[in-house]
Specification:
This protein is α/β, with parallel strands linked by helices and about 350 residues long. About 50% of the residues lie in helices and about 10% in strands. The strands form two sheets. It has a six-stranded mixed sheet with strand order 3-2-1-4-6-5, with helices on both faces. Strands 7-10-9-8 form a four-stranded antiparallel sheet. Helix 1 crosses helix 2 and helix 11 (about 295-305) packs across helix 12 (about 315-330).
Length: about 350
């Protein structure tokens, strides 16, 4: 008799991702392309005979505990070492004790190495964004230090639907609607983070924990109405399902994938077009920018603003629209102030973007 359908589903999802990790690791002709590379682009080649290490980021909740259990089951069969990291955000009393419990649970699953990493959460971008930034910084540091080939994250299809709706509310364009990628990472780490559960609903992950008798922790922040995502989860999505019927979550997840495909294509077009709209000194020419389709032009502008020093996470559609008006609605207006002390202004038919 095989495993429960929920357990079979999470194991299959993890098995597929682990096969992808191994496939990436076999391409050693260009070391900088391998998952988990350090930020400087260097890549220490694993010692001969050393199995690759894959980590799971585990909060102790149902999603990440289900992921940890599936990784612990599947990794040894593929010759992969499986470890775990839990991040103590320090935002609740007793969070250190909770992190220690998660370490114990991951150790009981025979994950090794297992670590708890404490972080200090700042205030930039609001509490949710600040906690996320601190968490990813801790995961990056741990993955670099341990030489992990990948870090698995427990985001589910429900999380994806919530992310799409949050992007829609911000009005940040098609990239926001594309939600979370199955594979992501920063510079030099483009394949580090893997999300095996984006096609699996939250209830399946919870069911998998229940039938395996895995203890889970429900973070009180997930039901705290002070947090936008919590309100969306417990009020917004149920209201949408009541008004539109079941299937809203699945439809939003499909929207994310379609939007990501479109956004990727437009980003590639913009990257190719950028060289053609600069003069011999590398300055952006307004007339050539004007001739581009709006979706491509705005991407070129965003790339230029980020390159000048504006933080990508603080740059919204309204910022790029203001810069775009220097091209399409020029009336002699002055410089546009952007996040990161970057300013954009039109001078002699050129668009000048620089930190001031």
């Amino acid at each position: 008799m095989g495993p429960h359908p929920a357990v079979a589903a999470i194991r299959l999802a993890v098995r597929r991702v682990l096969h992808d990790v191994l496939t990436d690791l076999t391409d050693l002709t260009d070391l900088t392309r391998l998952p988990g590379a350090p930020a400087d682009g260097s890549r220490p080649r694993p010692a001969a005979g050393t199995p690759p290490l894959v980590l799971v980021a585990c909060s102790g909740g149902a999603d990440s505990m289900a992921l940890a259990s599936a990784l612990a089951f599947e990794a040894p069969k593929l010759g992969i070492r499986a470890g775990g990291i839990t991040v103590d955000h320090g935002l609740q009393a007793g969070s250190d004790l909770r992190a220690a419990e998660v370490v114990t649970r991951m150790t009981a699953l025979r994950l090794d190495p297992v670590e708890s990493v404490a972080v200090r959460v700042g205030r930039d971008g609001g509490p949710e964004a600040a906690a996320r930034d601190a968490r990813y910084a801790a995961l990056d540091e741990a993955a670099d230090r341990l030489g992990a080939a990948a870090v698995l994250l427990g985001h589910t299809r429900d999380d994806q639907a919530e992310t799409v709706l949050l992007g829609l509310a911000r009005g940040s364009g098609i990239r926001s609607l594309s939600g979370m990628a199955e594979v992501s990472g920063g510079p030099g780490r483009t394949h580090r983070y893997r999300r095996p559960f984006l096609q699996i609903d939250r209830q399946t992950a919870r069911k998998a924990c229940m039938v395996q008798s895995l203890p889970v922790w429900d973070d009180p922040h997930n039901i705290d109405p002070a947090y936008t995502r919590s309100r969306l989860r417990h009020e917004g999505l149920p209201a949408l399902e009541k008004a539109l019927g079941k299937g809203v979550v699945e439809a939003l997840a499909r929207t994310a994938q379609l939007s990501r495909d479109d956004a990727d294509a437009l980003d590639a077009w913009a990257a190719d077009a950028e060289a053609g709209v600069r003069d011999e000194d590398g300055r952006l020419e307004c007339a050539k920018l004007y001739a581009l389709p709006p979706a491509v032009r705005r991407r070129v502008l965003r790339r230029a603003v980020v390159a000048a020093g504006s933080p990508a996470g603080s740059l919204f559609a309204r910022h790029i629209e203001e810069v775009d008006r220097l091209i399409t609605g020029w009336r002699g207006q002055g410089a546009i102030n952007l996040p990161g002390r970057v300013e954009a202004q039109r001078q002699g038919g050129r668009l000048v973007i620089r930190q001031g």
